[in-house]
Amino acid sequence: MARARTVPWAELDTIFFDAGNTFLSMDFDRVAAVAAGLGVECSGRQLERAEAAARPVLSAALAERRTTEGGGAFRFYLRATLERLPASSRDDVELEAVVSGIAERLFSPGRNDRLWNRRMPGRREALERIRALGYRMVVVSNSDGSMARTLTRIGMDHLFDGLVDSTVVGFEKPDPRIFEVALDLVGARPGRTVHIGDLYAADVAGAWAAGVHAVLLDPWADWPEMDCPKVADLDELASLLPGPPGRE
Description:
Blueprint (H helix, E strand, L loop, with lengths): L13 E4 L6 E3 L1 H10 L6 H22 L4 H13 L9 H15 L9 E4 L3 H10 L3 E6 L5 H7 L8 E4 H4 L6 H11 L6 E5 L2 H10 L3 E5 L12 E2 L2 H7 L8
Parallel strand pairs: 1-4, 1-6, 4-5, 6-7, 7-8
Antiparallel strand pairs: 2-3
Helix pairs in contact: 1-2, 2-3, 3-4
């Protein structure tokens, strides 16, 4: 594999953040309760771990599926997660029935905020630490138009200088145009900007296509050796940031 790209930390003045699995999570306990009603006994914590393990699979599928949004993508995501639960041994028919049952109960177009509404522990504090250093901060999210509502609901909208929701702007990661919208929004330069997110194909490859630096979130070391920098969480990211240089 080619040598991993580096990030010029001392030259940065702007940070883009993915939302889901970066500082915002789905309500795993709710998903576990629905799964239990369909005969799948698991805890929210087990689902959280399985979801993280499924991310490389979802990332690889983006080349074919071309989207992380919509009912089909949600079902693929659910299936990949359920397959990684401990002692998962259901056949395809049984598994598909469970996936369909969960999707019917929890997927609601335009209302991702009903499921993706949990602030991840410690993330607000890490974001406050980064903001205190003086960086411009923008959320760049593949979402269904509900991200502004979600940020307000979890009390984190004030931490960011801007938000780019894919449904609102009409471009979805990894399309570089969504990053270009974000750059224009705050007057940032791609070479002085880094994006952090949890999916290589959407977040890393998409950012690079726009000339933006990128970091992959890998809290459980589920990704193999990659050609990009990785961090476990936003605290680790904050520890790498020296504060922005003087802006021109």
